[in-house]
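Hello Y.,

Per our agreement to keep a running log of every chain we model this quarter, I'm adding this entry. I've kept the format consistent with earlier entries: sequence first, then predicted structure.
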Amino acid sequence: MKLIRRTFLSYATAAIASSAMPEMTYAQSYPTKPVRILVGFPANGPNSILAGIAAEWLSARLGQPFSIEHKPGRSGNIATAEAVKAPADGYTLLLCGPANAIGATLYPDLPYVFLRDMIPVAGITREALALVVHPDVPAKTVPELLALAKANPSSIKIASTGNGSAPHVTAELFKQMTGLNLNIVHYAGGGPALNAIVNGEAQMMFEPMSASIEPVRSGKLRALAVSTTQRSTALPEAPPLAQFVPGYEASAVTGIGVPKATPAEIVDRIHTEVAAGLVDARMKARFADLGGAPMPMTPAEFTRLIVDETEKWAKVIRGANLKPV
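Predicted structure for the entry above:
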């Protein structure tokens, strides 16, 4: 594992260093045309929501439209592959996060290495995933859910936003730590998975709070716990899952990445503007309302976090013997 960590860090260091090469000199006027943010999942899911907030902020700050392009497929890998191939000029950004840390292990045949071929520019948020159940599930607490699942595991289907997604591996970690043999059903993204559990096709789900909090507030779903070790101010009634499954912790970390060789001046400009949004009172309130904690980080700090997340999820993937589909 130490060798893997050193390899990832060496890739990342090379990618960040390559951005310092003086390939372009117009960063002071950047951007002079619309910018696209690639999102590797369908609309209306947590990635789409966070990308929309970032795009709105950057559009207002930089005077050019920042638009969202959804490129769903293969747990975000299609969008990442397109970002890797894009010109390194600052006009193609990638909303990066858990899928990139997970994909490094789950998909050994990827045509890219994320930390070699992309520069993690800025963190946006770290958010808990809510453990939610359909209202018809009789369990009102985590201990009641555990008892129900042990007594009748076939009665619980877990909705996933796709093979290798954050909700998927978070559920796998739950299975490993509880010893429960529960069926995980994959859907094509956060929106379809949420619809499935709201409609009663599945009974349980781990979903980032930016997408799950509204169904919880409206009574369409019931939140039993959060995946982080601390309660969320947006959902204070939901205790940390670690109170009932000691040592359990998971979160969705999200940020912005650009292709390697993007000039340092543009990397710095994007980082500066994203960081400004994370300390803006209105933006902080929006993130907090969605259950996310702003995550201001330098490119180097965000890179180290992705390395840590890659190592964490590699253990879960290998322990569950997960394979690409």
